[in-house]
Specification:
heterodimer, A: 112 residues, mainly alpha, two-stranded antiparallel ribbon, B: 134 residues, 19% strand
């Protein structure tokens, strides 16, 4: 089991009914781990990181908002949709198909 | 999030700063657009601290928080100037009627102001669009 991928291990837990308190402890631990991962997440395109991708103005001092459009590049699948959102969403809204393709309905890409 | 943020009557800014209590509205994806969460995720202090260690969290995420109207530099007197400018300058890559899921739409300042047009343009908005070398 120790050699198994974390995602496989997680998928293997589907359908196992745990005591409520254990479920809650696990959920809280996952939530903390996910929060840490999420906070350090940077999925932006590489050129956005280098500062050449943004086309918008700088936000005005004191203002909450600024605007900018970023050129479109390849739209990759968001792997994090699985682990982040399943945990944060309290294990809701996630399904796994026969090919273990994990679906989540929590984060959804904007209008296509 | 303050108590008033949870009040259904509170109008929320969909492009707020990262702070304890703010709502995580979405994540900037590899294509530069924002993917939204349909569930309310409240940012805590730990998230803020970790997020501040890296690139500006307002470049990587979108946050929601109470619209402070006149206390915000973007307030034009009667409305938020940000979404007005966005709708003038951004050419949304989507068709009206295909609105992304969003956890704050019923309370969103931009939606209240501009309706579905705001939602179509919203994924194009990066809160902190300042150029920087990271």
């Amino acid at each position: 089991m120790a050699d198994a991928k974390g995602s496989d291990f997680y998928v293997g837990l589907q359908g196992i009914k745990l005591p409520k308190d254990a479920e809650e402890r696990i959920a809280n631990a996952i939530r903390r781990a996910v929060t840490r991962e999420l906070a350090s997440l940077d999925l932006r395109p590489a050129r956005g990181r280098s500062g050449t991708g943004g086309g918008g103005k700088a936000p005005t001092k004191g203002g909450a908002g600024g605007t900018g459009s970023v050129p479109s590049v390849i739209n990759k699948k968001n792997w994090y949709g699985f682990i982040l959102l399943k945990a944060l969403g309290g294990f809701q809204g996630v399904s796994v198909d026969a090919g273990k393709n994990i679906q989540t309905q929590n984060f959804q890409q904007g209008v296509r | 999030m303050t108590d008033s943020d949870s009040d259904a009557d509170t109008i929320l800014c969909p492009s707020a700063n990262c702070r304890d209590g703010a709502l995580l509205v979405g994540i900037v994806m590899p294509d530069g657009r924002v993917a939204f969460t349909s569930e309310r995720i409240v940012v805590d202090e730990e998230f803020v601290q970790i997020a501040r260690r890296g690139a500006s969290p307002e470049k990587r995420f979108r946050f929601g928080s109470t619209c402070v109207e006149g206390a915000c530099a973007q307030w034009t007197g009667e409305r938020c100037g940000v979404i007005d400018e966005v709708l003038q300058t951004v050419n949304p890559r989507g068709a009206p009627g295909e609105l992304p899921d969003c956890s704050i739409r019923p309370q969103c300042r931009w939606f209240h102001q501009s309706g579905a047009a705001a939602c179509v343009a919203c994924p194009e908005v990066i809160t902190d669009a300042r150029m920087s070398v990271e």
